[in-house]
Amino acid sequence: MHIPTDDSHFIEIKTFEEDYNESLSAEGFDSNKWIYVPGEYRDYRYLLGTRGSNPVICIGINPSTAEPENLDNTLKSVDRLSAFNGYDSFIMFNVYAQRATRPKDMDAQVNAFLHNENMKAFEYMLSLSQNATIWAAWGSIVNERDYLKSCVKEMIEIGERYNARWVHAGKLLKNGHPHHPLYLCKTTPFEDYNIKEYIESL
Questions:
Q1: DSSP letter at 44?
Q2: Phi-psi region of 117 (alpha: psi -120 to 50; beta: other; left: phi over 0)
Q3: Rounded to whole angstroms, how far apart are CA atoms 180 and 74?
Q4: Contact 149, 202 (CB under 8 A)
Q5: pLDDT in tens, the chain (202 residues)
Q6: How far is it, in rounded angstroms, from Cα 156 to Cα 88?
Q7: Model pTM greater than 0.85?
Q8: At CA 175, angle to CA 169 and CA 181, rounded to 5?
């Protein structure tokens, strides 16, 4: 457990392992159907999704207020598009784990402890399946904070160790940003995404 001493608004941040283990016996949702870490609403979220043998890992910038059985419209779209593209489940992950309704509300400086635990959550997801599929879906706000690009670069390095495939859905935005899922047609196919070329161009 980490209690920040900087300007962060977090009261306490538990490790991914602590939160994951606690989520397995959390009340309020079926942990056999859902993966939700932490297993209760907090100022941060590592993972939210459904359990299956062939998940797609969808990547946003930072978590919303969504919870199991109470998905927002973005997560509903993620669920539909994952199924259309042949996946039996989805896991929503974010470049930075702080919940913030608006990107401008994210920490001005990276919280190193939160980031490191978030990367442990990312690596855990990649270990769930061989040749995992990672769906880049964060829209154009990756430049909102200087540290977000560095976070994505670290994710790319972790993904390479697991031979992960990066994809996007819908037409790429200006500067090659991947399309956000919210307004995509439910029959939009995934396409291979050159994530390394994209991040180096920013």
A1: B
A2: alpha
A3: 8
A4: yes
A5: 554 444 445 568 999 999 999 999 999 999 999 999 999 999 999 999 999 999 999 999 999 899 999 999 999 999 999 999 999 999 999 999 999 878 889 999 999 999 999 999 999 999 988 889 999 999 999 989 999 999 999 999 999 999 999 999 999 999 999 999 998 999 999 999 999 999 999 8
A6: 24
A7: yes
A8: 25
